[in-house]
Design a protein that fits this description.
CATH class of the largest domain: Alpha Beta
Order of helices and strands: HHEHEHEEHEEEEEHEE
Number of helices: 6
CATH topology of the largest domain: Rossmann fold
CATH architecture of the largest domain: 3-Layer(aba) Sandwich
Number of domains: 2
Largest sheet: 7 strands, mixed
Strand content: 35-45%
Shape: globular
Radius of gyration: 17 Å
Helix content: 25-40%
Structural class: alpha/beta
Number of strands: 11
């Protein structure tokens, strides 16, 4: 069992931070080249649930034990596997998705250009034709100063303190998350530190194009635009 997105934070993410996955799912309902999808970094199953309810065959993969448990409860009709996205054996599929900065997380220290190129190579190999890779990521342009450097987010059943720090030289973003989760009359405190690699969009585009993908950058998957320094890619395999 790993120590990222444990029970309380997994629930909070499911309740309040699933809008990007919902937008991506709705985009795929209209634009998908087929009905079989591998959702790497599936989280609590938001995308899997929407797509499976619209006739898609979904396999969800996540590094977090608690996210996988939550996804299995939320979407019992889909298949979920606990694994690093870099270690999972990708089956033949129409679509591979990595939604919510999944490629950036340094949970298993493999998020770098070399490991990402290897992952993209395996994805291209196992995508059917036509096929689609859809993902989003953080760039060095991400803003971590001003009111974004330290934030307090409050809801009825939880409060979260988030501190951001950007190591520009090494292109690493660190999120220090302290969560107070209401349990009866009391609050349970937990803390997680997430480190993320910041990627150069043009370098990622070059890696994908060299494999044979046709690459488009997107600023959103729907009506809700990404914030500064957050960018999406839709890469198509046409041959």
């Amino acid at each position: 069992m790993n120590t990222f997105y444990n029970t309380d934070l997994a629930l909070v993410h499911d309740w309040d931070f699933s809008h990007i996955a919902r937008d991506a799912a709705n985009y795929l309902i209209t634009n998908a080249p087929g009905k079989k999808i591998v959702d790497l970094g599936c989280g609590s199953g938001t995308l899997a649930g929407i797509l499976s309810n619209n006739g898609f065959d979904v396999i969800g993969v996540d590094y977090s034990t608690d996210m996988i448990r939550l996804a299995e409860v939320n979407v019992p009709q889909a298949a979920f596997i606990e694994s690093s996205i870099f270690d999972f054996t990708i089956p033949s599929t129409d679509i591979v998705s990595l939604i919510g900065e999944v490629v950036c997380y340094l949970f298993d220290h493999k998020s770098d250009y070399g490991h990402l190129a290897e992952l993209f190579t395996r994805i291209y190999k196992h995508l059917r034709t036509p096929g689609m890779l859809i993902f989003d990521f953080l760039t060095p342009a991400v803003v971590t100063d001003g009111h974004l450097a330290k934030r307090i987010i409050e809801r009825e059943n939880w409060s979260m303190f988030v501190s951001l720090d950007k190591d520009a030289a090494n292109e690493i973003l660190t999120r220090d998350i302290t969560l107070f989760f209401k349990t009866g009359k009391f609050y349970r405190r937990s803390q997680e530190i997430h480190r993320q690699r910041l990627y150069d969009p043009e370098r990622l585009k070059q890696i994908l194009q060299e494999l044979g993908f046709v690459v488009d950058f997107v600023q959103s998957y729907g009506d809700d635009p990404f914030r500064t320094g957050h960018l999406g890619i839709i890469a198509r395999k046409n041959e």
